[in-house]
Amino acid sequence: MTARKRYWLMKSEPDAFSIDDLQRVGTEPWNGVRNYQARNFMRDGMQVGDGILFYHSNTKVPGIVGVATVASAAYPDETQFDPKSDYHDPKSTREEPRWMLVDVAFERKLRQVIALDEIKPHAEALGEGFPLVAKGNRLSVFPVTAAQWKLLLSLEKKS
C-alpha cells in the first residue's frame, strides 16, 4: 500500500532562490529554514513525490509561480554546521542536528503568477486560517489540502 500524496506550499524570496533558479538546476536542497514548525513539516510530513506550490514572497507581486515535487526524504541541513553560513546554528551537532531539509525538484513554471491579491478573494473557500491569507503568518513551509491545491491551481489563467 502506498502513502497518500500530500501537498505543500513553500515560499522563497526570488532574489535568494527563484523558480527560474530551480528550473536551471533541476533539484535543490531547501536549506536555511529556521522555524521549528516549518522544519517539522519537512522532517515529519513530507514524502518523496509530494506536490509543492512554489511561492515567491517579498517581491513586488507575491504569488505562486510554479509547481515542484519533494525529491528526497528529510536529512540534516548542512548550513547549520558551517560557521561561515548565515544559517549556522552553534547549538546544532552532527550527532543531534536541529535543522532538516528536503530536496525539491522542478516540475513547471506557471503561465503567469497567481498573485496573492488573486488568492485573497478565495479565503473562505480555502478555509479558515489558510496561512497565505491569515494575518501575521510567517511560515515558509506549510501543508495544503488536495482541495486547496486544486482551487489554487484553477486560478492559473489558460492563456
What string, H for helix and E for strand, traces the elements in order?
EHEHEEEEEHHEH
**Domain unit count:** 1
> Strand-residue fraction?
25-35%
CATH superfamily: ph1033 like domains
Helix/sheet category: alpha+beta
What is the C-level CATH assignment? Answer: Alpha Beta
Protein name: EVE domain-containing protein
Domain EVE: 6-154
InterPro entries: 5hmC_binding, EVE_domain, PUA-like_sf, THYN1-like_EVE
Q: In short, what is this structure?
A:
The protein is an alpha+beta fold and 159 residues long. It is built from 5 helices and 8 strands.
Structure explained in plain terms:
- The protein is an alpha+beta fold.
- The chain has one domain (7-152): ph1033 like fold.
- The chain contains 5 helices and 8 strands, in the order βαβαβββββααβα.
- The chain has helices spanning 19-25, 36-45, 116-119, 123-126, 146-154, and strands at 7-12, 27-29, 51-56, 63-70, 75-76, 100-101, 103-115, 141-144.
- The chain has a 6-stranded mixed β-sheet.
- Strand 3 and strand 4 (63-70) form a beta hairpin.
- The longest helix is centred in the N-terminal third of the chain and has 10 residues, at 36-45.
- The protein is globular.
Jot down its keywords.
about 160 residues; alpha+beta; ph1033 like fold; six-stranded mixed β-sheet; two-stranded antiparallel ribbon; 5 helices; about 30% strand; globular; 5hmC_binding
